[in-house]
Amino acid sequence: MNSINRRRFLSLSAGATGSVLLTQCSWASTSMSLPQKTNGAEVFTTNSNGLLDVALEARPSLIQLGQQQGNLLTYNGLIPGPRLEAKAGDSVRIRFTNKLSQASNLHYHGLHIPPTGKADNAFLAVPSGETETYEFTLPKNHPAGTFFYHPHMHEMVAEQVFAGLGGIFIVRGALDEIPEILAAKEEFLFLKDFALDANGKIPVPNHMDVMRGREGSILTVNGQVNPTFSLASGGLLRFRMINASTSRFYRLSLEDHPFYLIATDGGAIAEPVELKEILLSPGERAEVLVRGDRNPKQYRLLNLPYDRGGFAMMGGMNNGGMMMGNRGTVDSTTQVIAKIAYKDELAKPLPLPQKLIPVEVLPQPIATRRIEMSMSMGMGMQMAFLFNGKPFDMNRVDAVVKLGTTEDWEIANVDTDGMEHSFHLHTNPFQVIDRNGKPDPYQAWEDTLRVRAKETVRIRIPFRDFVGKTVYHCHVLDHEDLGMMGLVEMQA
Q1: What is the DSSP letter of 164?
Q2: Quick one: pLDDT band at residue 416, thresholds 50, 70, 90?
Q3: Which of 1, 27, 65, 236 could cysteine-pair with 391, CB 3.0–4.6 Å?
Q4: Architecture of domain 367-491
């Protein structure tokens, strides 16, 4: 695979700036949003002028991960970074300072905002030691949901995310105002794994780590190892789950409790769905309710074994089989990642909501595209991960689409090694229509999609609002860095 010329990223970023829809840049000077502390997390919300105004600094920090201290990368010295909360129609200004030793940037994963200029521009590079101001306004019809932010500096994404960079971005709205959900206790599950050597440093990934996608044996929730959440007898617990890991898939279950799914990546579904477990590929989110209707004691939130295929018995820091390397051995056993302890009792049990928010029915597509995901090996074991047989080229547009139209994309995993992938589309959410011809049970809004080996998933995408170039890629981030990314141009 040809290496990416970083200067071309800078030139593309500069060229796009003039065409961006950013009327919000004319704001008057406003005092910055003040952080609040909620359950130990730093939270920024919009001020009285409807502006979320935040300073974020990417920097190395020493962070305690269970029994070990790690040399990690953080936003504002925190893992996860500060939680950002806004409402549809609010404006956002983020002063991002890069104190890393390499270039970085910010991507607002799942937000429907401009992909150009100083909004959600994946091609914008902030050099080491410099500050950039990101500015955008959430559309007035933006759905409420659980989103997040992380770096998106191509060829360095996996390294920077695995080292710790990431934070939660919440859009409040109609889902939060449903009485039963409003009454529930809200908790956030920012799921992230780490690998540390004996000196507390992140080990350099070996060949197989990168090929499979790096994983670590230290599993954290909100930067903590095995934290405890409380649930009142008769109460409801609302878990907002974010898979912020670089490559790990999470298969979650709660002892003796079902989950009641209420929202996917892009927001609410029509009505709660009872599930025994939740499977999240990298970048996926889900919101669930848990009922406090069991014997009042402590229960374990479990990450169950999951085989995502490919190279199952090769060495490295990964999970799956017996992975041997200088990080030790990691096996595929069930892992406890958090506990839920019953505390107090409500006089009257809280009911589940019966109805949530109807999911829009999209018009029939004007076109269908097929996008195949695969891997190739070159001379000297050089790896490339491909869309339609090609590695990413920032000078090549892979799809041209028109605003005001809807398309179906068939995402086909044709990898011969049986490895699963996680497909993510920037800017425009989509609905999953079917998997291998079998209709999807929810057809809800998504922006990240698990694609199993030899599986074809058909998604329906409405292209609305924003012109410019954006990307789609595998969210197993080592695969993105090694070429599994494409460029889509949206035209008026």
Answers
A1: T
A2: confident
A3: 1
A4: Sandwich (2.60)
